[in-house]
Amino acid sequence: MKAVLVTPLAITALLFFAALLLAEAAVRVLRVPRIAALVVAGALIGALRRSSEAAALMPLPRVLLEALAMVLLFEVGQRVPLGWLRRNPWLIAASFGESAVTFIAIYAVLALGFAIPLFDSAFVAVICMTASPIVVMSVSKDLGARGQVSERSLLYCTLSSVYAVLLVQFFLAGYRAAAHVDITSVVQPVYLLAGSFLLGALAAAALRLYAMITRARGPLLTIGIICCCVLLYAYAPPLALSPILSALFFGLIVRGTDRTHSVLSHQTSEIGAVLTFAYFILVGASLTWLDSWTLAGVAVAVAAVRLLAKVGANAAFASPSALSAAKGALVGIAGAPLSSLALTLTASVAQQPELKHAAEISGAVVLLMAILGPVLTELALRRAGEPTRGDA
Q1: The domain spanning residue 341 has which CATH number?
Q2: Cys staple from 384: which of 60, 149, 340, 362, with CB 3.0 to 4.6 Å?
Q3: Distance between CA atoms of 119 and 286, rounded to whole angstroms?
Q4: How many folded domains does the chain comprise?
Q5: Which domain range does residue 366 map to?
Q6: pLDDT, averaged in runs of 10, over the chain (392 residues)
């Protein structure tokens, strides 16, 4: 009888049900931002899985989290206005500047303040200079936020994700070349960028054909998008391409070629909301709790320097890009979150045994900013006066 009651499927359903109840209770009673509540509820699930023999039966495949991230990254790509970059080239300069200042600040505090080896410091700085466009997009949608702060923070988070993916590959290629592992891997970043763009373009063509034939809207269209994203996730790794970049390019190309904006209808689909909830619970469940005070201290220092660097850089670049310094600082605060993108990059670094310490530091920073980041994003958007739903 016990074997019938305690099954992986039953445990999974019960824990997800409990996570949703806990998150919604926190939102209604404590007024906690919904995204942060979902991540914390997921983190409690992860802790329970590691401490409970019964809960350990819960299957938590990494592929599910990354597949959900692919769908949300597609939506991020659809929301990024590339025409804005043509009208205001200072946005590109501000994006580069923010990422560069954040990288330098994190690298300096690790290498000079904590005497972390140079390679480790560089990898941590690259991973942590990025931010999560999925979190910014989800918080903005939850609040119904519209304005310069929400749009710029989403744009900068998206661009920083592209920079980070390319730089991690570039650094790994250099690391392997220095170790005489694979000299030819130096050209990997170029292949990664071009190949991921081509794969995203193929997915965009397939989705347009699907939408034209079926005239899909709402849930039916969302199902087609999910299928395309899963195919991207299935084919990108065997081709040595980036699923992250492929999904972003997929969304960007669909946005640029969808003249009627019919594909945008999937964003209000109930299926899309379900995927978002499941994604953030899985992000929380994938986080690793800290078991070292030293590591916790390093992570707090990196998180603090990272936030200060983003705020300072965005305030400095605000005026040339036609924004006030105060709102520029709010853009930096809104770009605080880290989530599955950083976890994926951390996992790629952890594949090199010599870089295990760098992966541990990066994972600790992700833990902090996956929980605190959505709170900071919501505070920044509310301070900017951009939410349109007061009870979001």
Answers
A1: 1.20.1530.20
A2: 149
A3: 25
A4: 1
A5: 62-383
A6: 58 78 86 88 79 57 77 84 82 94 97 92 94 92 90 93 88 67 61 90 90 76 85 90 90 78 55 79 83 90 97 94 93 93 86 87 93 94 85 46
